[in-house]
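User: Show me a protein chain along with its predicted structure.
Assistant: Here is one chain, sequence first, then structure tokens.
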Amino acid sequence: MPDDTNGAIPVHAKERLKGLRSSLHSSGVFTSDFSVNEFLLVRKAGFEPIGLCVGTCVYHVGVQYGSWSKNQEMDVLSKAMYHARELAMSRMRAEAGAMGADGIVGVKLTIKRLEWDEHLLEFIAIGTGVVHGEGHKGFRAHDGGPFTSDLSGQDFWSLLHAGYRPVEMVMGSCVYHVAHRGALASLARAGQNVELENFTSAMYEAREIAVERMQFEAAAAKAEGVVGVDIHEGSHGWQSHVIEFFAIGTAVLPLDQEIAPEKIADPIMVLSIND
């Protein structure tokens, strides 16, 4: 387990990182969760995989009750879910920094409920640390640390080929209580085809809050835009009518200079190897 909450790396992780290579020609081995096609295209984009970067956080999510008949954000739960993911991400990024990576590609951010306590969730961030083959540091994030991206190896290649680079994986969370329908209202509309405006409004607003927060993160990272946006929904075992909307994507910026086309293989040719 980490020594504290500030991204400290456990002893066994430090030992594992010592065995990784820092470039194609150095000693050691690389580890990666890339598919074969992803591995080939990341290499064609001028990057070398170094090793898996992992961050985890076991978090006790508190309790918050919403008004039975009111649409409202559960701000205590929203903050808890965001903070836990942020801890996992920062620890993953700390591992990437320790191995000398310029960035992390293919980040997967997952949540699982622990069996021994229904209030405990484990947040896991994992991706492959990569380093630019020519030592170019211009690919790093705005704070000088490794960039993070949930793009696949294929999308990473395409992004660079189009003249853009990933800056930061950005996210926004909103846990929302959707108001219940009263008994009379339910009976009055029984058997009818009719929109439930209250529910529609709640779901719409909750998604918008999550996306807006993700967009705010992208602006703070000085990004031009966000690609690959996905919105996940889940209740995580909370009481009825409480749902989380989680928006995530990769913030991007234009490259100072496009990678020369002759240095990048045709992706169709590469992908056909294993098709």
